[in-house]
Amino acid sequence: MTLNQLDITKIIDGCKAQDPKSQKDLVLNFAPQLLSTAKRFCYDNVSPKDILQEAYILIFKNIYQYDSSISSLKTWMNRIVINTALKYNRQRYIKYELLTDYIEDDQYIIPDIFKNLHYEEILNIVQKLPSGYREVFNLYVIDEYSHDEIAKLLSITSSTSRSQLARARKLLKEQVQSLINELERI
Amino acid sequence: MNWKEFEVNLKNIAQNHPSDMDTEAFWNELAPKKKKRYPIWIFLIPILIASITASYIIININSSKIEHQDELKSKEEVHEKSDDNLITTKHEEQKNEISNPSLINISTTQKSKKLLPNQFIDSKVQQNNYSIQKNKNVNYTREIEAISQITKINEDSNFNHFSKIPENQSDIEMPTKEKVIISDIDYLKPSQLQIINWDKKQLYFEQSDYLKINIEKKQNSINFNFVLGIGAWNPNFKTNTIDISSRNTNVERSLESRNIGFLIQFNKGFLKHFETGLIYQENISKIYWNKKIVEEKTSTEQSLVSINTYINGKIDSIYGNKTTIRTLERTVNQYNKFSSLKLPIFYNPLKIKLNQKISLVPKIGILFDFYQQNTGKFISSQDQVVPFGESNYNAKGLGLSYSINCPILYKIDSKSSVSISPYFNQYLSNVISQNSDLQSRPIQLGVNLGYQIGLR
């Protein structure tokens, strides 16, 4: 079901008035997409639904702060889910940093068959990245955060963010290459 | 496709992929439980009952006063009964009973018994705490407990009060049926006695209105009961928010309940079985809990261990199995205050007298209340986890609860008594809304101390 802008405005106004029906609409229409985001950022021992539940509590609590002129509702909620997930993650792993540069190789060619990857397959590939790389890769490539934003969010420097992204890309390429090799063998 | 296109492709797939989930079930977990809504008139009923009762009592007291004044005006008029059956001992009227006390001459005939069915009869004075003596006033200073065959005073007839000269009580016919308690007859002057009947066994004196007024005044009295109580409560912490049950390893709770208030009881007809008033109750929960987890996990996958060299733009790295040691520790201090202003209606069907001084008055009640929950003063080692941040959360609403009390009353004198009353309260309605740490039906258990005073 797609929502037009009028419906979304109605839902937002309802949520600001703490109307349970609007809150329900907000959950029914956006939760599946937000769950996908939560899945990308969470680890084995944390349920993405727990993250989503806590994120929704924050969303209901802070909906009055939402400003449609700054971002879309989907983006705003997506960011809350990411923040909630990162707060969870911050207690759960030891992060290490690479203070080095990596020269990116944009000419790396990938077979077109990779265009038809399913979400779960992408998730599977990205999940294999070490935690620090994975977060930066997710934030930069998929959620379109800038390096400065990532640095602020993860309490690192933007150069660290860049180097981690580069490292993530290298590891991803290796994974993709091993997949290609496997496909060729078959 | 090149790597950039590959990443754009990844982004598009990831951004437009809703996960499969049961959104209805998810909403049900998230949604606040629906509050039962009670129509506003439920809360108005007790106020209405209290107002009507108060008006009724006030009107009655006023009419009694008027009646009493009329009686005082006409008390000098000698009331002579012309009934032939009334063989009496006449009381000699005294105009000035203080300076010249009345004389009471007692005589009797057998016929006097015929009066009995029409009078307030067959009585026995339980305590010899009065005197009727020649040249002296009749002075009642303490409670007289009488037993009568008549259960109700017939206001239309000129009933007589009764008494007995305290002699040879074994000769007295033991009365039957119901007890009538007449208390606080302060001072009965001989001039107010009009006819005294004596049938060898018992002394009867007619004095209709004076006593009637007193009896009515007694029936119109109001008891004020001031209560102060302490106890404990069980707020039933929700597992889906604080999640005490699954996360904690070391929890200390302090769950206090305290209340203060007053209750009013009208000593008239069926109303004497009911009490109402106002009670302010505070329920406090202080929680301290912490948890420490140390986990050691060796990954089955190879992870980066170190970077050796940087040669020709490429990094040689060593991979190995990563071992992660995690130490999680969380400490939370939480202070939660749930306060309510209650309007109770108690029903006490019976009074069990253990002896002259001590009695049990079990009672049940429903309590209408306005409640407010203040959850705050969180101190958390990891304040980023909902709901362990600082919280200004408030819940407000109207609640309904029931109560079981068993007060033990100790009578100090005819007007006042003290009580100790164990109580059990539980909410019938939902009193907590979303984001709260509490379940819907908290229980309170404790003891109230009370001081009761009777006012006319």
Textual characterization of the structure:
The complex is a heterodimer of chains A (186) and B (456). With 186 residues, chain A is mainly alpha-helical. Chain A is built from eight helices and no strands. Chain B has 456 residues and is α+β, with helices and mostly antiparallel strands. Chain B is 17% helix and 42% strand. Chain B has helices at 3-15, 23-30, 40-74, 112-115, 208-219, 244-247, and strands at residues 89-90, 130-131, 139-140, 144-148, 161-163, 178-182, 195-198, 203-206, 222-234, 250-266, 274-311, 314-347, 352-353, 358-360, 363-380, 394-405, 408-411, 416-427, 443-455. In chain B, helix 3 (40-74) runs antiparallel to helix 5 (208-219). The radius of gyration of chain B is 38 Å and the shape is elongated. The termini of chain B are far apart.
Q: How much helicity do the residues of chain B have?
A: 10-25%
The oligomeric state is heterodimer
Percent of sequence in beta strands of chain B: 35-45%
Write out the strand line-up for the largest beta sheet of chain B, numbering strands in chain order.
9-10-11-12-15-16-18-19
Q: Which sequence of SSEs, written as H and E, runs from N to C of chain A?
A: HHHHHHHH
Structure summary, number of beta strands of chain A: 0
Mean pLDDT of chain A: 80
Distance N terminus to C terminus of chain B?
A: 99 Å
- Helices of chain A, by number, come to 8
Q: Give the helix proportion of chain A (percent range).
A: 55-70%
- Total helical elements of chain B: 6
Category from helices, strands and their pairing of chain A? mainly alpha
Form type of chain A = globular
Note the main sheet of chain B: 8 strands, antiparallel, barrel
Rg result of chain A? 19 Å
The largest chain-to-chain contact, stated as pair and per-chain residue counts, equals: A-B, 57 and 45 residues
Mean of residue pLDDT values of chain B: 61
